[in-house]
Design the sequence.
């Protein structure tokens, strides 16, 4: 089964290089960049919504003729969810399995003030708490000036996301998260259960919001186990 990986705010396909290296040949993983216009770090970042990204991905995936699963981390979880709903509305093949990582269920309100409205210093300080940006970059002002517009754009897309109630997905969903994540709790993850007819629970790992950096091998093994179970589920169904 193919496995498409969607990045987090400020992330890219290369952000999953370590996780991909830890995976075996159980599935065929492919990390995606978000489909945006313009040249990264050269042109001003394109302003978009989660739904717009989802529609663009759905147009890429609508011709898939083989089973595929999607792993979305943080912002990527929202995009994966909306892309699946978009494919359903188009009457096209949907993902056979969704792995939604480190993002509260879409109907839950933001539990903190929006970061994209903060001053540069406040924004940088807040980003540092997620442990997703290397410390050497956080300390380098010129580098932060380069990447901050993209980070701020991505956080704005997540923080202004408006959930629309629709029929439950008929896709198995499982969630993953870090036990030390101060923003997304296991209860926030389990709240995804109301959006699918088949919720398979949440898997928690040591570490924070970017647990797969701290528990890379364990996360890789768990993803592979999920893919194997999804394949069996398809055979039974």
Sequence:
């Amino acid at each position: 089964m193919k496995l498409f990986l969607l990045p987090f705010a400020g992330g890219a396909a290369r952000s999953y290089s370590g996780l991909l290296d830890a995976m075996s040949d159980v599935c065929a993983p492919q990390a995606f960049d978000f489909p945006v216009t313009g040249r990264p770090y050269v042109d001003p970042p394109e302003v978009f919504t989660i739904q717009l990204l989802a529609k663009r991905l759905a147009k890429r995936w609508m011709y898939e003729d083989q089973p595929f699963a999607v792993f979305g981390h943080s912002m990527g979880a929202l995009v994966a969810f909306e892309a699946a709903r978009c494919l359903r509305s188009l009457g096209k093949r949907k993902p056979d399995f969704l792995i939604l990582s480190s993002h509260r269920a879409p109907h839950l309100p933001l539990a903190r003030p929006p970061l994209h409205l903060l001053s540069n210093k406040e924004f940088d300080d807040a980003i540092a708490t997620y442990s997703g940006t290397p410390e050497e970059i956080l300390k380098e002002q010129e580098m932060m000036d380069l990447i901050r517009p993209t980070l701020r754009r991505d956080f704005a897309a997540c923080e202004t996301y408006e959930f629309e109630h629709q029929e439950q997905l008929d896709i198995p969903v499982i969630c993953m998260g870090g036990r030390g994540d101060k923003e997304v709790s296991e209860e926030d993850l389990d709240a995804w259960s109301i959006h699918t007819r088949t919720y398979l629970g949440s898997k928690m790992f040591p570490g924070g919001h970017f647990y797969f950096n701290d528990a890379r091998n364990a996360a890789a093994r768990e993803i592979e186990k999920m893919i194997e179970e999804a394949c069996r589920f398809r055979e039974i169904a």
Notes: The CA atoms of residues 157 and 222 lie 29 Å apart.
